[in-house]
Design brief:
This protein is mainly alpha-helical. Helices cover 61% and strands 4% of the residues. Strand 1 and strand 2 form a beta hairpin.
Amino acid sequence: MKATEFENKFDAGENVSDAIDWSQARRRTISPSVNVDVPAWVMDSLDKQARHIAERRTVSLIEARSNDDLYGRPWCEKWTMGRMIQFNTASPYAKARGQVRKWLTTKSASRKS
């Protein structure tokens, strides 16, 4: 199956698992984690850069599809692809960012005590 055919079937919500050679699937080795203390301005800079990359990816995804692809037909149960993009890009990121900032503030306050 060609990549475009695979993408079209996937975008239409069809099951594409038969087109995948599962015998070639590999699980990445889980590597050990490392904790690093960095200044707050570095975290802010990384946060800004990550937000910019995510926004560009989302815009590219939207621009690559027609209005009919985005809003013309259900994509996930009753929701269209465009609506799902709206659900998953607006509030979850803001909530997660707020939770991380709250955690960082609490962590830095506990170190000062």
